[in-house]
Amino acid sequence: MAKIINISEAASIAVHSMAMIANSTEMLNVNQIADRTHSSRNHLAKVMQILVKNNYLKSVRGPQGGFSLKINPSEVNLLQIYELMDGTLEGHYCGIENERCPFDTCVFGSLLNKFSAEFLDYLKNKKLSELIKTKSE
Question: Considering the entire predicted model, what is its pTM?
């Protein structure tokens, strides 16, 4: 099924995993995260490796091992995690570059630009710390 906004599986896994780890008082391992996110263990392991390599997570091996945050969650926004997986978000959104488009105005109107700008704004302004649930929630 086609999606209006296409978020890669890697970016989705990264954001969800970081939020789960931020919410956990204990280390979470690949199997636990894969079970909860219904993700491929192998794909998840590759995403986690990128997050560790880029100093977002700390990894501990062994039976009591897993992942914990290496960063302050109030200093990281979701855009940083998203772009780590998928690269920088670009300014044109319909799939055809402005220079190559055969029309003077976009056939989709301003909707795609509006949706994309709102999504980008959300990612920029939503801190990982805002995804941490308190005990009263």
Answer: 0.86
H or E element, residue 41:
helix 41-53
CATH number of 9-131: 1.10.10.10
pLDDT of 31-82, one tens digit each? 999 999 999 999 999 999 999 999 999 999 988 899 999 999 999 999 999 9
Amino acid at 50: I
**Domain residues of the chain, as ranges?**
9-131
Phi, psi of 68 (to 5 degrees): -140, 160
Q: Which residues pair with 67 in a beta bridge?
A: 28, 59
State the DSSP H helix or E strand holding residue 69, giving kind and residue range, or none if neither.
Answer: strand 66-69
